[in-house]
């Protein structure tokens, strides 16, 4: 929460309701990202408390990510008193209009006595995997409320069609998304794939991925369309389990948006149907898993050597909040050999998500280490999250991949066919002049921090951080090698 | 700007257009606040370049402020390619819906060849004092454009009614807002007020105030409604020059929103009419202005002693970006004795504006010192602005008023009648545990910084900062005395 005047009764009530934990964030984008992280890890709704339209506006980018992650988030947004709404006060804005693009459900409270019922409606809606926004005029906070709303029941299973017509003699793929990315979906896909000889891939846009050395670890669809097209090449049929036909992240000149072959046929198939279907095939035999790889030889830190070192030291069951951007695919290639872990990617592509999602994941799972793998450029979007890690003593180890550049844009600039950039254009992609000092940014907010420029330094500092527990930050200075 | 893939051609073109200055900001809220600051100081449109819906979303709170300040801002927002828009890619969102609540004009480019004409339309619209948002699908950036749009002419003067019927024997006030707050409006109001015996007040919600020891320095309407009501007490007529009937910032229990007496009659009167009307009265005689006050005796820093010290050392013609929140009225009371200066307040009440507006003002007025007077809580919203100050070597001296608390909410909580807060509620207003270190936050971003806890320390550091020029930051630790 980051409350203001219109939410003071709500804040004041915190002491009367022991079950509610208020977590202060110094910027609303941290609140919404943390709520997303909590909802991803628990499947249960997390709430934000935000101040009027502009407070909600600051939360929107990470609510966009939450929407794409299908996270259960309830926004409680204070509003001017009903009497004040008719005037153009400084903070007057169209709060509902701000909420609509990211919310599946938006209501402005019409009376204090309906608060209970509407709160239940918001929670029920959020539990279907959407963002629900409840706007509360301040005078309904200081007038008598009604009865609490009904306890919200589990959402009923949606109706499903389990028919699947795929010729056995044609190349078939299974693409898993969203809910299908967890244990039950992976297990079912493993059985079906083995029986049908189908290729299994994980949709990029999921909220939560099970990765590392596992008996069944299908690859995630690649970021760039050329690589994704290669992964899907030759497929005549693609079974879409809880996802849409895959498209590239951006459109590019002279390139299709869809990454599956043009003649590929799509077969939407809900997760319960996949699980039911899988029962007719035998479970996969137990597999020998490779031992955790060793720490690489000392040398400069690169995306490769950082990935290898992480793979060597990552504790089992870690949660990785991934906002590495340009280094992400390289690091994850190495982490495939690490012990089983979970990865929370930037579901909606809006950067500034990694640190807030780590906050929410750490609150949701206090017994698991959370590792935020964060590019320097995107870290700066919501750097205030470090303070909440310190305030709440969260077990988050933040690793800043510092290459002093919006590196991904060097690549994207070429891909869009833009001319070679001159010095003015170059400066817009450059994060040096001056360099950012993430050790000071962390210490300034109460998070102990160190800097590592070599494999040995990083290995040492990461080991120490794991032993001490978070919050802790390591600035990993990547060399250009 | 904070561009992404969809804006790469635009960035690449910077080197071909010497008249365009690209300024990189590490978060979009800095871009929009800086554009607002530039537009306030020059009256000319500033442009932002933002990446898709989520990039625009991050800019919205300060666009809300720009809208309330009636600032000329043109947002250029990249969008997916037209072909890609039909798919639900991760970054797909309803960009127009994000833009509408803050923009008076929103257009999505329909063809590359119409870019010139639409750009001219956006600029013409912005020049009427509004936010204009032009959304550009990426494929129109890499296909052939058309001709540049027409050069934008000065907006024509709007039609005006100069009739004013106010009985001379009844108490009359003149409230100046927006454009009327600059020299011509103040001069005209001074002549009319002297002749009619009218009380002059400045509307709170203006973009730019001329303050300090001036021949004519009417008070600004107070923040809290009780004080504003007292300033307006007894008025039978209120002449509204470029503003609306004044309302309190928030609505409160058992209190009207309007702060003028219930029987007060409003008379809207445009600025040109006031200037015309003033000609029939003699100009005010020259006034003796008091000398700049001395530095107070050494002692702990408080809002009072900080205000006195600022008043003693403020250079003439300084621009103050004011986001002091709870300390603002006390400091400004002392600055009334300082040399003439300008104040840029948080026009729309959305915090996180002060540092970005200082960036824009310093770019607009490189020959004038810019002083950002910034509360610790609101500074954290857009703390990334410090990096742009360092990158662009801007003459901004940032003074953080550190009271380690959302102090204004202590007051507001009581005002809304909320019960005394317990420990959980208290923690939501508390910025200590851990304390923020603004010296490190500044140094981490390339801005030299010091900390002052006494009048002597602060005076010394402020003097040195003025001598050296910005960027520079002073953390002014306020004691609770």
CATH superfamily of the largest domain in chain A: Thiamin diphosphate (ThDP)-binding fold, Pyr/PP domains
How much of the polypeptide of chain A forms β-strand, as a percent range?
15-25%
Q: Regarding CATH, which class of the largest domain in chain A?
A: Alpha Beta
Q: Which chain pair shows the most residues in contact? A: A-B, 108 and 109 residues
In a nutshell, what does this entry contain?
The structure is a homodimer of 481-residue chains. Chain A is an alpha/beta fold.
Question: Would you write up a description of this structure?
Answer:
The structure is a homodimer of 481-residue chains. By secondary structure, chain A is an alpha/beta fold. Chain A has 3 domains: 5-140, Rossmann fold, CATH 3.40.50.970; 172-278, Rossmann fold (3-Layer(aba) Sandwich); 303-477, Thiamin diphosphate (ThDP)-binding fold, Pyr/PP domains (Rossmann fold, 3-Layer(aba) Sandwich). Chain A has 17 helices and 15 strands. Chain A has helices spanning 8-13, 28-42, 52-68, 95-99, 115-126, 183-196, 225-232, 271-278, 303-313, 328-335, 354-364, 376-379, 385-391, 407-415, 423-427, 438-443, 455-468; strands spanning 46-51, 73-79, 105-108, 131-137, 172-176, 199-202, 209-211, 237-241, 265-269, 319-323, 341-344, 370-375, 396-402, 449-452, 472-477. Chain A has a 7-stranded mixed beta sheet, with helices on both faces. Chain A has a 4-stranded parallel beta sheet with strand order 1-2-4-3, with helices on both faces. The first copy, chain A, is globular. Chains A and B meet through α1, α3, α13, α14 and α15 of A and α1, α3, α6, α14 and α15 of B.
């Amino acid at each position: 929460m980051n409350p203001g005047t219109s939410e003071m009764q709500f804040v004041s009530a915190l002491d009367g309701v022991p079950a509610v934990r208020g977590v202060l964030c110094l910027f609303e984008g941290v609140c919404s990202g943390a709520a997303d992280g909590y909802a991803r890890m628990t499947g249960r709704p997390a709430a934000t408390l935000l101040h009027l339209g502009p407070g909600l506006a600051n939360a929107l980018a990470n609510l966009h990510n939450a929407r794409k992650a299908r996270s259960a988030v309830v926004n409680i947004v204070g509003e001017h008193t009903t009497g004040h709404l008719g005037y153009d006060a400084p903070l007057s804005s169209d709060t509902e209009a701000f909420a609509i693009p990211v919310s599946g459900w938006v209501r402005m409270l019409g009376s204090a006595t309906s608060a209970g019922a509407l709160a239940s409606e918001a929670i029920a809606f959020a539990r279907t995997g959407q963002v629900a926004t409840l706007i509360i005029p301040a005078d309904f906070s200081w007038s008598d409320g009604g009865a609490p709303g009904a306890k919200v029941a589990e959402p009923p299973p949606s109706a499903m069609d389990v028919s699947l017509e795929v010729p056995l003699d044609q190349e078939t793929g299974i693409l898993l998304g969203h809910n299908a990315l967890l244990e039950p979906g992976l297990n079912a896909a493993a059985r079906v794939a083995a029986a049908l000889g189908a290729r299994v891939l994980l949709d990029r846009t999921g909220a939560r991925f099970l990765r590392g050395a596992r008996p069944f670890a299908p690859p995630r669809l690649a970021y760039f369309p050329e690589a994704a097209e290669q992964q899907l090449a030759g497929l005549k049929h693609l079974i879409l389990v809880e996802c849409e036909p895959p498209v590239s992240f951006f459109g590019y000149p002279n390139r299709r948006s869809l990454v599956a072959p043009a003649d590929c046929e799509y077969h939407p198939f809900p997760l319960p149907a996949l699980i039911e279907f899988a029962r007719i095939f035998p479970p996969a035999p137990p597999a020998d898993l490779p031992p955790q790889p060793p720490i690489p030889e000392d040398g400069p830190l690169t995306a490769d050597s950082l990935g290898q070192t992480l793979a060597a030291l990552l504790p089992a069951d870690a949660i990785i909040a991934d906002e590495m951007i340009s280094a992400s695919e390289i690091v994850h290639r190495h982490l495939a050999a690490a012990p089983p872990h979970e990865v929370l990617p930037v579901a909606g592509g809006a950067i500034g998500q990694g640190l807030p999602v780590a906050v929410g994941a750490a609150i949701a799972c206090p017994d698991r280490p959370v590792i935020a793998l964060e590019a320097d450029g995107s870290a700066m979007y919501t750097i205030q999250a470090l303070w909440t890690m310190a305030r709440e003593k969260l077990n988050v180890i933040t690793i800043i991949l510092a290459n002093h550049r919006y590196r991904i844009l060097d690549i994207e600039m070429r891909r869009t066919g833009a001319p070679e950039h001159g010095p003015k254009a170059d400066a817009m992609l450059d994060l040096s002049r001056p360099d950012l000092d993430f050790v000071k940014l962390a210490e300034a907010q109460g998070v102990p921090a160190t800097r590592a420029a070599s494999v040995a330094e990083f290995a040492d500092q990461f080991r120490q951080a794991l032993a001490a527990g978070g919050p802790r930050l390591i600035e990993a200075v990547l060399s250009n090698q």
